[in-house]
């Protein structure tokens, strides 16, 4: 049911409301459908119904998942390139995959229809949680939806500024050629031959769909974004490093993005029955900006919990020790204790590729984390650890005691058994 901008005297009553209809919500809708929760009353609140190719996600994982039919391409090996040479990383049993947004949105739309979800085509404002139900208001304060649970994926800043505040910012060109130009069997994960900024790290990468079509992207990790001319100039320079003749290629599409890289805390449970997903829920890895794998886990955990009659509260996206390691790494890079190229070169040079990828996904055991830490430059990272500890202590003294976490209600408003019966 589509209700564009319509505000009811009494709000729509549902079990679950998804506030924001982008990637995180699309994955949740597909997971709810896959778990057969067709009796669950669902609403999606977003003024825009996402369609088409507005972004590209790249992630790694084992082949054979339910996303495989949607992938544009995948690779069993990738390249990491530095001025010193090219390193080929075999990824088996994992693989690196590229997923464009169009198939994800199409699958979510089909799931939405099967679930009988109500779509409210209006922007959401404040969420009023009384501990039993959550009222979703529009920006003028009028009630749109009342739900047992709200999953909020709207972008928002961290609860307080981080000690390090960087951004992953990028521009990519989808390049089309009339003759074979790209190697479809191998992606370039990171190419550090790009000119390095005074503060931060830059790299290019290449994701080929076939031998005549590829995404070529320039990325920076750092405190500030570039101008349009800066991104285009960097992309032209990187295309030159790849030996691409842009005069013989066509730019089919352009992708831009800015992703937070910070140790500032994102509050995943702002109130008892509101759960944040995506970047707002901590799904973005601070040290890399990768988000998709954590969003996928969150969606599956939400649907699995509802199917079992539990509250739809996913686990933290990353272990606390990984967030601490990320904070230390960001500090070391930001303060110039270690160079970005050196940091990533040692990470891939001194660890098996599978360990690096699983670490970046938050899936490594403590012993593996120690191995990752040992691959970093010892003295600079020790200084970063001590500096981070001092900053944390100072911040804790300024803030005082931490507030108690929001309680988790004992049960979801409607169990999976009820939904399926």
Describe the structure in your own words:
- The structure is a single chain.
- This protein is α/β, with parallel strands linked by helices.
- Helix content is 30%, strand content 28%.
- It is built from 10 helices and 18 strands.
- The protein has helices at 23-34, 101-115, 228-241, 292-307, 320-334, 340-349, 353-360, 366-374, 378-399, 416-420, and strands spanning 2-4, 12-19, 42-45, 56-61, 73-75, 77-82, 85-90, 95-100, 118-121, 127-129, 134-137, 143-152, 165-177, 187-191, 201-210, 213-222, 249-262, 274-276.
- Strands 1, 2, 3, 9, 10, 11, 12 and 18 form an 8-stranded mixed β-sheet that branches. Strands 7-6-14-15-16-13-17 form a 7-stranded mixed β-sheet, with helices on both faces. A 3-stranded antiparallel β-sheet has the order 4-8-5.
- Helix 1 packs across helix 2 (101-115), helix 1 (23-34) packs parallel to helix 4 and helix 5 packs across helix 9.
- It is globular and about 65 Å long.
- The two termini are 22 Å apart.
- Mean pLDDT is 90; it is low at 1-7 and 411-421.
